[in-house]
Amino acid sequence: MPQRSAVSPLGGTHSRALNILALVTDAYGGHGGIAKQSRDVLEAMCADPDVARVVALPRAADHPLQPMPDKLVFDTAAAGGMMRYVAAMMRHLVAGPKFDLIYCAHLNLLPLARIAARLSRAPSVACLHGLEAWTPHKRGWSRHAARNTDLVMSVSQLTLDRFRQWCPVPLDRCVVVPNAVDLGDFAMTARDEALAQRLGLAGRTVIMTLGRMDAGEQAKGFDRVIAALPRVMRQQPDIAYLIVGRGDDRPRLEALAAANGVADRVVFAGEIAEADKVAYYNLADAYVMPSVAEGFGLVFLEALACGLPCVASDFDGGREALREGKYGQLIDPFDADALEGAILKAVATPRGVPADLDYFGVANFRPRIAAMLRQALSLPRN
User: Best exposed site among 124, 234, 249, 372 by fewest CB in 10 Å?
Assistant: First the structure.
């Protein structure tokens, strides 16, 4: 790679290409929205011609690793406990080359990121996802690290606003970078009738939610959709509800479906592989998630890319994924009448991908990450 000029296009004064240390909860070998967003960020960094190398340390890598960019060093030796993680971080800090920026993918890792930033004399960036940033962190050192990070990157304006209510980082040290969807990976296709038959959905009008069934949070709105089904069935007798994901709240939801007399209309598909998502989305006639704690809602982008009419909550970050109602319906998640009406309207709406969904595409995400790097490197250090 050619040597960089004295003044970097990224806004620093480095005479060489950048080296970035990324502390992530999971990314490659991970499952779920945060892992996917971390992969997107790492790939955007590696795609930047001004970046020489990215070293990423995962706390966990429980699934098979997806293909990675050449510039990325993904050190799975860091996974398997905090002592291993700290040891891996110190090994990379000592071995060199010097890191020019420390990226932290979760508030829980921010104290370590601040230590790495001090030792490297480099700026730190903290990424906010959602619920973890909405209220003061339970650990004092994490609150201190949040106040002193050089740049805060949030996946939504809502999450940033709620974070700044308890941690008033100056606005010039904040940036919103919404999540991305790879439009080459998701598309509207014909229904897989064999899959529909196997799941008991053949001939049904299907609404779908994909997410973790967390008994502690109960925030996705699975229970509210199940409770709405008896009323929806009066006008849409062939309705069925497909729930994709795993979690310890499943027994409660199964009992709720039975108590509402809709156990035969609710299909729990379990966790599926990333490669199978398109087939499952294309089983559905609409995507419905009246949640209360989404930081953004990457699943909405995936559903939209598969042509599904969407129903989201007006209470959380899902409204930003639907661009304040441009891409779908926004409702009060606790208004049963509104939810019923939105479901009926959604399943009657013809499927189609929004013409400007590339707003959230990778081609626009990568320049946003490059701009974030420029901003972090140009700010005075905290």
Answer: 234
Residue ranges making up the domain that contains 148: 18-180+362-378
Query: Residue 224 falls within a domain, yes or no?
Result: yes
* 11 within a domain of the structure (yes/no): no
How far from 281 is each of 209, 210, 346, 362, CA to CA, in Å? 9, 9, 14, 20
The SS3 of residue 140 is helix
Please indicate, yes or no, if residue 135 is contained in any of the structural domains: yes
What is d(CA 245, CA 210) in angstroms, rounded to the nearest whole number? Answer: 6
Query: What whole-number distance in Å separates Cα of residue 290 and Cα of residue 70?
Result: 40
* H and E: helices and strands count for the chain: 14, 13
Global confidence as pTM:
0.92
Q: State whether 205 and 168 are in the same domain.
A: no
Q: How far is CA 244 from the centre of its chain?
A: 16
Q: For the segment 230-264, what is each residue's pLDDT rounded down to a tens digit?
A: 999 999 999 999 999 999 999 999 999 999 999 99
128 neighbors 152 (Cβ within 8 angstroms)? yes
Q: Rounded to 5, what percent of the chain is helix, strand, coil? A: 40, 15, 40
Q: Which residues pair with 313 in a beta bridge?
A: 331
> Tell me, what's the pLDDT at 204?
98
CATH number at residue 217: 3.40.50.2000
Q: What's the CA gap between 93 and 21, in Å, rounded? A: 9
Q: Are residues 147 and 241 in the same domain?
A: no
Instruction: Tell which phi-psi region holds residue 297, choosing left (phi > 0), alpha (psi between -120 and 50) or beta.
Output: left
How many separate domains does the chain show? 2
- The 10s digit of each residue's pLDDT in 175-230 is 999 999 999 999 999 999 999 999 999 999 999 999 999 999 999 999 999 999 99
